[in-house]
Amino acid sequence: MEELLTHRAGYTQGPPGRPWSTFESVASLAEAWGERGPSLPDDGAWSYADAHADILAAVLEVAAGRSLGELIREEVLGPLEMHETLRWDGSADPRAERILPLHWGSAGEWPVRWRPEDGPYYAYPMLSQSLHGSATDYAAFLRAWIDALQRRPSLVSAAAARRAFADREPIAVPPGFSPLAEGRTLSYGHMWGAVHEADAAPGAPPFAFMHQGSDGTFAWGFPELELIVLVLTQSRGQSIHREVERVLRDELVEPLLTGSR
After folding, report:
1. What is the tens place of the pLDDT at every residue in 66-83?
2. Is 91 strand, coil or helix?
3. Is the pTM of this model over 0.90?
4. Domain range annotation of the chain
5. Under 8 Å between Cβ of 26 and 126
6. How far is Cα 71 from Cα 130, in angstroms, rounded to an integer?
């Protein structure tokens, strides 16, 4: 379970052998991943892959005796009052009217690859993807983690938050991948990237935690600064993460740390 949560179970990013839409459920998708097996040596090396999240989803369904959709609605979306977030199945729902088209970057253009009128983009709930939501709801999710890290009442327990960021082993990423990590350490917790101060004590909360989504969704949480930053583009195939994070660091985070803003 820990290897799945931290993307260290040996899978690499890529399709499961056939289109996701051809599977009946996340359980059948996880079964296909299991049949293929990990492609990396069993040495605990970090490798981000949707397979880790989707295998974890299938384990959760068995352990809880409930479907993943039920778990997400009843254990996360409901308690956090994330009422604008849904896994749209094509049924009549006023929230579906706010779902934006999906763009996909290619040389010199941003063509639309999917519109809501085409029908549901996701055939079944997954942990790696499949939810449509709003910036307000996403911020509520990050707020729950910040509250837990600051030991305030939260849906996430303080103990779970500490466990989530306990692994401080640096991960291998391209140079300059995370401007916020320059002069700090970049690791990966339970489904979150984490930046710690270089001299942070064991068990200290991260300076920042983050997630970069394939749909061009970027999220950063700064527990000590009580700051949440979201950039939502709904555009796959772009590479603005580094540039956005560099501006975020230079124009907002560092001035807040030094008291110059």
Report:
1. 999 999 999 999 999 999
2. coil
3. yes
4. 1-79, 134-261
5. yes
6. 14
